[in-house]
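Supplementary Text 2. Reproducibility record for the structural model of the 75-residue chain.

All settings were left at their defaults, and a single model was retained for analysis rather than an ensemble. We include the record here because the model underlies the residue-level annotations in Supplementary Table 4.
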Amino acid sequence: MLDLKSVNPFKLPFFLITEKASLPNCSSIYFVLDGDEVIYIGRSSNLKKRWGNHHKLKEIHPECRIAWAEVSDLC
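Retained model, structure tokens:
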């Protein structure tokens, strides 16, 4: 299981929020990063679908990025 205390979200793979169509179809814990600040942490069984359906980009700066850690299961 992923130990969130040991995860550095700034060293994870990421895409800019404007590139959300490139996100992988995987179970993950994800982080929305704005500069050097984590502004949101979430989890999803399908990261690409989650961002395609549920997040409103107008509320998030276009230079923000989505970083993720793939997980095998979400409880």
